């Protein structure tokens, strides 16, 4: 075949392979090795792979590949051992790692990771509830962190999370604290004091924080764009008024089952003119009057959830588009 056709075939062929399959295919012959060496390894996706230790070792021993790697996903790698994390030291430009539900990784493994890869900018530890406050302390030295996912780390205390944010949070733009029911004054106070660049905060099913605690965000996080406080049973209008006045760049807000909120919250949110995704699911105290005020300030809402808002009379998509939200594309009512 012509050289041009060969190159096109090589690109098409390599695009069908993941990184592990590329390593296997490169062993076929020198021609294949040359052809497949062009496949970039910046994002190394090894999610759920068996014999993961062997693959990490193989990648780490190839200095050209290891130096290219910026992001590694090891999500759901059941066979990942703590000793395997030692190989990550060879990935000298590594910025991001995902260890979601890696069942054999303990506090000691996180300590080893933080020691060997101190310039991490992203770390995800989703649903590793066996990790303790020792993990939080191990992460203190990662002062380049921009994205921190602690979702489901239910054994961490409010104080431990707060201390971690104070130590490593000055560059954070995204924090996920989903289902961490201890979150309160210490954590949110630290976020408000330290994370002036924060853009995303997820606190789904964090039930115990108060208006006073969440008000720290309004004072210290002016860049906040995405906020999820689904299920915040203690949250009232006072807390949301403080959020709306200080976080006017909000564009995505989940207030599902924040049952104490009233029209006063909608009136405050009218200050957030970038709002486009809003969930008011289960908020029984809202009325059309409050929605009209919201619409005047937030005309660009495209996704709206009003399921369970039993006092709202205007509920049809066409009616809401005509009377309140002309750009509305998706409406959830059931």
TrEMBL record:
One of its GO terms (cellular component) is SCF ubiquitin ligase complex. It holds the Pfam family DUF7885. GO terms for biological process: SCF-dependent proteasomal ubiquitin-dependent protein catabolic process. InterPro entries: FBXL15_LRR, Leu-rich_rpt_Cys-con_subtyp, LRR_dom_sf. Transmembrane segments: none annotated. SUPFAM superfamilies: RNI-like. Residues 88-273 form the F-box/LRR-repeat protein 15-like leucin rich repeat domain. PANTHER family: F-BOX PROTEIN YLR352W, PARTNER OF PAIRED, ISOFORM B-RELATED. This is F-box/LRR-repeat protein 15-like leucin rich repeat domain-containing protein.
